[in-house]
């Protein structure tokens, strides 16, 4: 009975934590908009979340470094996410791309070029 109650409390607190995300906080901006720059947003388990104004042609590998890598969230205290989810507007529709982080960072694969308005989400690793 005691284990069931503790489990219920943990699940409930995780649920409420998901609902209290960054939506209520003002977005932090990094850099300045300008000619030759694109706006890209980092959400989730990044060390430095927020809106970034970066040079056109920047790839996801480089952007991950700009954001300080993975954040300290999750059960393992700061291991990289398994995948990045990128939302991008293409011809008026929102498309979602899923990128394997390990392959992107450790293999000789082509970098994923970011575009103006992209939103990158790094999921927190939780059991």
What can be said about this structure in brief?
It contains three helices and six strands, in the order H-E-E-E-H-E-E-H-E. It has 127 residues and is an alpha/beta fold.
Structural account:
- This protein has a single domain (22-122), classed as Ubiquitin-like (UB roll), CATH 3.10.20.
- Helices cover 24% and strands 28% of the residues.
- It has helices at residues 2-19, 60-66, 101-106, and strands at 29-30, 37-44, 50-55, 83-90, 93-100, 119-122.
- A six-stranded mixed sheet has the order 1-3-2-6-4-5.
- Residues 1-19 form the signal peptide.
- This is Secreted protein.
Number of helices: 3
Helix content: 10-25%
Shape: globular
Ranges with pLDDT <50 over ≥5 residues? 1-24
By CATH reckoning, the class would read Alpha Beta
| Helix and strand element order | HEEEHEEHE
Kindly report the average pLDDT value. 77
Please state the CA-atom Rg, rounded to the nearest Å: 17 Å
Supply the helix-strand structural class: alpha/beta
Protein name: Secreted protein
Keywords: Signal
Please supply descriptive tags for the structure shown above:
Ubiquitin-like (UB roll), disordered N terminus, single chain, globular, 127 residues, alpha/beta
């Amino acid at each position: 009975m005691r284990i069931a109650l503790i489990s219920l409390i943990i699940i409930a607190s995780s649920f409420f934590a998901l609902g209290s995300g960054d939506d209520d906080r003002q977005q932090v901006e990094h850099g300045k908009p300008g000619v030759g720059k694109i706006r890209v947003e980092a959400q989730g388990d990044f060390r430095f979340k927020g809106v970034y104004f970066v040079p056109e042609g920047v790839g996801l590998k480089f952007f991950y470094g700009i954001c300080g890598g993975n954040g300290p969230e999750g059960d393992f205290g700061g291991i990289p996410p398994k995948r990045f989810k990128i939302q991008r507007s293409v011809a008026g529709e929102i498309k979602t791309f899923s990128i394997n982080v390990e392959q992107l960072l450790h293999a000789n694969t082509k970098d994923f070029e970011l575009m103006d308005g992209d939103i990158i989400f790094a999921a927190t690793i939780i059991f």
